[in-house]
Amino acid sequence: MWKFIVILTCKAVNKISKLIGHEGSVIGGYYALKLDKNILKKIKLPKYVIGITGSSGKSSSTELMYNILTKNNYTTIYNKEGSNTINAITSLVLNNSTLFGKIKKDVLLMELDEQFMKYIFKYITPTHLMITNITRDQPPRNSHPEKIYTAIKNSIPNGTHLILNVDDPFVNRLRVNHKGGVTTYGLSENNYSRKSNLNNLDAAYCPICNSKLEYDFYHYGHIGSYHCPKYHFNRGNPDFEAKNIDIDNQLIEINENKIRLPSNFLYTAYFVTGCYALSKTLNLSDENIISVLNSDEIKTKRLNIYDFDNRKWQMLVSKNENNLSYKQSLDYILHQPGDKTVILGFDSSSRRYKENDISWIWDIDFEELNDSSIKNIILIGKFCYDMRVRFEYASIDKNKIILVEDISNLSKILKEKTSGKIYSMVCFDKEIELKKIIKEENND
Amino acid sequence: MINVLHLYYDLLNLYGESANTRAIKHNLELNKIKVNVDLKSLNDKIDFEKYDIIYIGSGSEDNLLIAVNDILKRKKEIKKYIESNKYLLLTGNSMDLFGEYILYNNEKINALNIFDYYTELINESTFKNASSDRIVGEVNGKSKIIKEKIIGFENRCDLNFNIKDYLFEVNEKYSNDLTNTHEGFLYKNVFATHIIGPILIRNPYFTDYLLDKLCKDKNLKYKSLDDLSIKAYKKYLENFDTKKE
């Protein structure tokens, strides 16, 4: 009876919250947990309870997994907005439960925060857990990747089937002593794989014997193919490996099946391969997975491309405080054909907190912008002088670098002093200003 | 010729810290002084006598303990290096290696015991900032060695007790043991601070002080020539130094 009241309360509060104009995905769960903190333990969950976590790529993976599952007639509920606190997951579960505490669906799918996950697993045991990668990400919030690794490791329950990106030695460490099934995935060497001076910042040593890992190749950062020289720990051959990878033409092959990628970014190859591995673990057939991946319904990711003074201008999101996501965006720009002007900069390191740590710009290979196709680099934002110093150290030709402190001059400078397609990768508030400049130009 | 050693470059390197040896190299090269930077780590053979300046950065708690095991084997040479007035720059938690011991999860781990401070690694939720269980934030400090302010960032979980000769004066919440304004450690030419990351890039006046002193010891002439870093330093203070720390 009490369970009935708790579930009813959650549903009612969320309804009311929605009626008065709130998004309302969290508040019902908050009150339900106030009434009964163990309510989640009393719900009959679906056959499959799937979690997806990692430093990056978890939203894209969860969304794609939802598509694969529903197109294969699995009824699925998932936290669409990525709300992954305990209150949000409680809301999701109770809203989709009958008043008697049963979820009449096949799958509960959850995008999970690496550090909050443990609070959810106290009440819900996942049948499957996919981990995309563990990298430097928002250090003022997450401290360092070892801490994220430990948070994930300590929250994984026995018996959960892990789906691991073994190109990442941090993720691969999770299988050491895990009691439960493990399925691995990874990418074969491709034209995005390159070595740099900043590869071995993390997870450089064997977790068993502390020998330095040896690499056959790097995709980026510490992600690649590695082995312990004393054979304690290695990437090995993943259960599902994307081969014949052609990022520029958006194609990969898994199990000799050609698969189209939703965009020409390397990270899409990772989440497609990860979802493939996870789907196979759920016993979906190759045909059923591929028919979804290659269907027109999986929309090609929309690229933010605008017209500006008879040139194309593509906007990328600046992944501040995540050196490897940032680097992948630089890699993307470099792989595009033709001459380029790049706009970079930020006013603050984070949108989530006030602390401005700028150490991360020294963990990014800006050196790779020493490329003949990069015609100009424009630095904007409050930290443009720190970026300028970084580019001095990267030995970028100073004649290519333009500092723009007053953004109202940017339009004129772009037209008069730069050439090639424009790529901007700036923080959120600066992006609004750039969009305004494009709009003004096109209204003239 | 100046010989630089970046020790534990692949283990204690959490926050862009290779930038510090790059700053040493860059500024000396602007002065037309030849520089050699060696990268060494666990189990590597190291001839400490060769080096003029050694740098160690900050690491995760686990990596710090791996480094302790390695550095203990080198105690005699390191002690000799320090006592012969050679330069040692430590950022983040690497200063923990040189104290008496490290307390971590109720376990006492012996450190080099070259200096008589000791370390406690904390993990309870005491702090209200981006990270709830660490000392995290922007530092704005003073020092006795230069008149210009020191800027930087801390992201740590180590407290150091029993330090008398400190390097910087900072807001209490970023100090060695959170009870006074004393931050870091200074002994002969050992400069240790909890500030993480590219401290020598962001603090050109401090870098100039350090390299000028080093060059004088080596009978080399040094001038401050890195105008871009000075500009970035001034801009940061202009943009963000609104509150008195």
Explain what this protein looks like in three dimensions:
Chain A has 444 residues and is an alpha/beta fold. Chain A has 2 domains: 2-293, UDP-N-acetylmuramoyl-L-alanine:D-glutamate ligase, CATH 3.40.1190.10; 304-443, Mur ligase, C-terminal domain (Protein-Tyrosine Phosphatase, Chain A). Chain A is 33% helix and 20% strand. Chain A is built from 14 helices and 17 strands. Chain A has helices spanning 2-19, 27-35, 58-71, 86-95, 117-121, 139-142, 145-155, 169-173, 266-281, 286-293, 323-335, 384-393, 410-417, 428-443; strands at 48-53, 76-78, 107-111, 128-131, 161-165, 182-187, 214-220, 223-227, 240-246, 251-254, 257-260, 304-308, 311-317, 340-345, 374-380, 401-403, 421-426. In chain A, the strands form 3 sheets. A 9-stranded mixed β-sheet of chain A has the order 2-3-1-4-5-6-9-10-11, sandwiched between helices. A 6-stranded mixed β-sheet of chain A has the order 12-13-17-14-15-16, sandwiched between helices. Chain A has a two-stranded antiparallel ribbon with strand order 7-8. In chain A, strand 7 (214-220) and strand 8 form a beta hairpin. The radius of gyration of chain A is 23 Å and the shape is globular. The termini of chain A are far apart. Chain B is an alpha/beta fold and 245 residues long. Chain B has a single domain (2-240), classed as Rossmann fold (3-Layer(aba) Sandwich), CATH 3.40.50.880. Helix content of chain B is 27%, strand content 25%. Chain B has 6 helices and 14 strands. Chain B has helices at residues 18-30, 61-72, 75-83, 199-202, 204-217, 227-240, and strands at residues 2-7, 35-40, 53-56, 87-90, 101-104, 107-110, 118-121, 135-143, 150-156, 158-161, 168-169, 182-183, 185-187, 190-192. In chain B, the strands form 3 sheets. Chain B has a 6-stranded mixed β-sheet, with helices on one face. Chain B is globular and about 50 Å long. The termini of chain B are far apart. Chains A and B meet through helix 6, helix 7 and helix 12 of A and helix 1, helix 2, strand 8 and helix 6 of B.
